[in-house]
Amino acid sequence: MKSRKYNYEDSKINIKLKLAALWTTVMFLYIYGDYFELYVPGKVAGLLHGQNLLNTPYTLLLASIILTIPSLMIFLSLIIKPTWNRVSNIVVAAFFTLFTLFVGASSFSEWRIFYVMLSFLESTITATIVWLALRWPKI
């Protein structure tokens, strides 16, 4: 019997779509990490009694600003002109790579090992964003 060789079409994906998809993936991981953290013993009780890092309006605002940036990068990666897009992706992703590495390194405990894994994955993805932006295709 003769075997058939299948040749599947593979489309080239625009760099802007790749970056937006990576930022989307990072955002899902952030959300999953924050959600799963609610299962850590004592976390919900601490939230109810104001015993957490976000216990003032200003720290809550700061956290909101920090987590708004990757959300905006999903859209901005699609609409900004290539030169500024490249620069903004490099700068923002480099910051978040270091930020999530710090979060992961400071989260080592039995109940937060999932946070360490997610932080490592988030850092890998944001480092990939830096790498892709640095290698932005030229005309």
Describe this protein's structure.
By secondary structure, this protein is mainly α. The protein has one domain (15-35, 45-134). The protein has five helices and no strands. It has helices spanning 15-37, 43-48, 57-79, 82-105, 113-134. Helix 1 (15-37) runs antiparallel to helix 3, helix 1 (15-37) packs antiparallel against helix 5 and helix 4 (82-105) runs antiparallel to helix 5 (113-134). 17% of the residues are buried.
Brief write-up:
By secondary structure, the chain is mainly alpha-helical. It has one domain (15-35, 45-134). It has helices spanning 15-37, 43-48, 57-79, 82-105, 113-134.
Radius of gyration: 19 Å
Q: Write down the domain tally.
A: 1
Counting DSSP E segments of at least 2 residues, the number of strands comes to 0
Q: Could you tell me how far the N terminus lies from the C terminus, measured between alpha carbons in angstroms?
A: 47 Å
Largest sheet: none
Proportion in β-strands: under 5%
Give the helix proportion (percent range): over 70%
Inertia-based shape: globular
Unreliable segments of 5+ consecutive residues: none
- Helical stretch count? 5
